[in-house]
Prior knowledge:
Blueprint lengths: L1 H8 L13 H4 L4 H10 L1 H5 L7 H9 L5 E4 L6 H10 L6 E4 L6 H9 L3 E4 L2 H9 L3 E5 L12 E4 L2 H10 L1
Parallel strand pairs: 1-2, 3-4, 4-5
Amino acid sequence: MVKLLNQIHGQEFIFDDVSIYGVSELYGYDFEQFYAFFTSNQYELNNIAPEGNLTEILDQLSSKYKMSLITGRPNEWMNSAVDWITKNNLAISNHFCASEYADGKAGCAKKLGITVFIEDHPKHALEIAEEGIQALLIDKPYNQECRHPNIIRVNEWEEIARKLVIS
């Protein structure tokens, strides 16, 4: 998404250097503007390839775990997320829209009996950890203050795979 926004706005932000979670803020978007951007650019966003060897890692993990997507995106964007998963042959068996739950991702995960949750958003990771669910927090500049005994920091998908296959 950052690459597409950079192209549109002539910027050169690098996602891994961004110190705020809401990338829309980098480009001066309010919620309505970002919503319009995301909605009108579904085709371009669906053509973004999965990161690194994510496809292979999810294949490996799915032999031991039931992999689900719990997204905080609005329900009307869910079909787009499912299309992206299907197009990229990702080993994700279920998908849920956390916005349908009053208590968001943490409540959804708790109701579904999720035992390990992979997240990068500090607020969601903390809420998930507070529900007693282990959160693997993908280490980013914008989540450095997030701490909890149920949170384990990870740097990349390969590390996630190592932690989950060993456990």
